[in-house]
Please model this.
Amino acid sequence: MSTLAVHDHGVVHNDHEHHHTETFISKYVFSQDHKMIAKQFLITGITMAVIAMLLSILFRIQLAYPDKTFPLMETLLGRFAPGGRLDPEFYLSLVTIHGTIMVFFVLTAGLSGTFSNLLIPLQVGARDMASPFINMLSYWFFFAASVIMISSFFVQKGPAGAGWTIYPPLSALPKAMKGSEMGMTLWLISMVCFIASSLMGGINYVSTVLNMRTKGMDLWKMPLSVWAFFLTAILGVLSFPVLVAGVVLLIFDRSFGTSFYLSDIVLNGKIMPFEGGSPILFQHLFWFLGHPEVYIVIMPAMGISSEVIAVNSRKPIFGYHAMVYSLIGITTLSFIVWGHHMFVTGMNPFLGGVFMITTLIIAVPSAVKTFNWIATMWRGNIRFTPAMLFAIGLVSFFISGGLTGIFLGNAALDINLHDTYFVVAHFHLVMGSAAIFGMLAGVYHWFPKLFGKLMDEKLGYLHFWITFICAYLVFFPMHFMGLDGVPRRYYAMTEFPAFNRWLSVNTFITWAAITAAVAQIAFLYNFIHSIFFGKKSPQNPWNSTTLEWTAPIEHIHGNWPGEIPTVYRWPYDYSKPGHETDFIPQTTPFSETMSSNLPHDFEDNPAGLEQYNAWAKTQRSSEEVK
Amino acid sequence: MMAQIQQEKDRLDLAPKKFNMWLFIFTSFMFFAALTSGFIVYVGGRGHGLSLILPNVFIYSTAVIMTSSVTLFLASRAAKRLQFGKQRLFLWLTFALGAAFFALQIYGWYILTYKMSIYFSNPNASQSFVYVFTGMHLIHIIAGLLLILNTLAGSYRNKPQVINLYKMEMSSIFWHFVDIIWIYLYVFLLLNQY
Model:
């Protein structure tokens, strides 16, 4: 006991000094405060998103005008666009790096990193993460990974070009193509840093949710956003190590002459000594991460949207328990469906059938979530804030992209559809656009919490409508291209007479993509301008019930001055009949809301129920007197 | 002031940090599970078996690392009983045994390559897997040894007992796990020898 007391004293002393000596470096650079780390993740994530978007515009221009030359392109890209036309191998690098950045750097680190960091401690009522130091390391590993990934544009032969899935042998033989050389090595180094970052973050998120909830915050009182971040972190913790294993073996194949993935290789007419390896082994290891990864991408966006939709419909989320159980169902199922990416690898048809069944079962929890979002909005008192529009956008994309998942999950149909634009359309809608819209909903909704300012609504609407319409214009026509058999990742469709007729559609898609890209300027301007000159935000701008809005607007170390608030009720008491306002914060005890209490509020609280019954009885008798 | 004390207490809660270690162990477990599943898929697919008799040195290294778990347990018990001299002694013993394990594994590689001519870079990748398993495990051993050194350093600097026990527990969780993983890998390899 005495050691404890001495200990406390020492720490308070340190803390005191600390406040006076907080330097620029400890506050803004190597910060251990989860709110600052969230901002760092967000800004790095947005930067990476802009880069990835510009890359996509470059290859879209190639697809729309495969035979035209653009002298400006040579000026900008030099040896990567000789004569003003993209180098075919650089085209593959662009596709690869666009995919890698969007999937990992924007929608994994940018999304989970920002919102898990910001919201987990604030919404469960914790001072900070379980280990603030590891949390800081997580960001800096991510930053290093980003810098290394971008730096691969500055090496002689350009970035990795084997696709974001880096299948061997292209990724395992440095001499195979331009994108297999230095760029591929940098890709691997970058991803090792990235996985380290992701694991450190994920471990912290899980531990914080399980150990550091405030008084009264049991698991069934957590907002759906926290549930989603929590389950996402579990997915990451269990699946990323498997990718490490795959990447370690790949590095040995590349640099140490082993044959884990390589067999019967003839390179430039020379027979290579590799023997007995199996590229399918890499696909198994990769997709064991790769499939959970797409849920790592979409689940935080789903959690954010659930929260935003409930707040802005002024209604409790429909089927809270069903929402949680479907998240748990998705988490579990996501580990046993990876084979649906490998239907055409010569897999045993029986095994393909098993993977098909597990894949199609995921439609059930996904549909539950979709119906619940719609039912939440049904007859709600909807406020169409920009955040709400983006959340509805997520629901829309998730439905239209999810439906095509049922086609692709079918082992027989996949023989036709595999590696066509149908797949591109499917995942860009269901996890690409949907997750981006979830992330943007989060940015618009929690911007006041991040920066203490409000974003401009008009620019938000402009941003939403152009992006929403253009996203459909870009990805919807791709379904038809895919049904016609147009393969993905091809450099110039004009080389193939069968696909020539799709050129006009490609041109159309490119112009839609460029319009969408231009619309992002509205967002970037709004974002940066509002940080500095935005309207000051009130304490609780959206009249929300959750805990983060009880913390002071000005960020302080430890989130709440004094004690952490206690939680008494679930986070969705919106428009509860009998209460004067249309929301009751989680911190309001039932004793203060007698007029709106219901018997089921006291399911696990017999003493409270007794009080409630007594109160109801007196109410009834006074009614009778009247 | 009271509020600040309260705040700092919340921030210094050690239980979540210990939980972090357990979670890290899950990630590590998944990593080795992936490697061994990779082995199974490889062997099943291509008809390349391990087809070698593992050198005896791995039996000795297994005995050494199991003993080190016992000494680490004794160090933990001494720490709980406030016998700090004994705690340091057993920690040093554990460290020495860990280092001996490391040396024995490297010696095992020496025998594999120079005596048995089974190389890492090998057309039969199931034999390369032996090096991958042991090598990746040795990386964990290095981390475990560093944790033990860190615990020792804390003990010599007379850190408060709470911290001492915390460090002791962190290194115990990790070291016993690394021990168990080695036994798993060794038994796995033994069962797949032919």
Q: What stands out?
A: The helical segments of chain B are 2-11, 15-46, 57-80, 84-115, 125-156, 161-191. Residues 15-46 of chain B form the longest helix (32 residues).
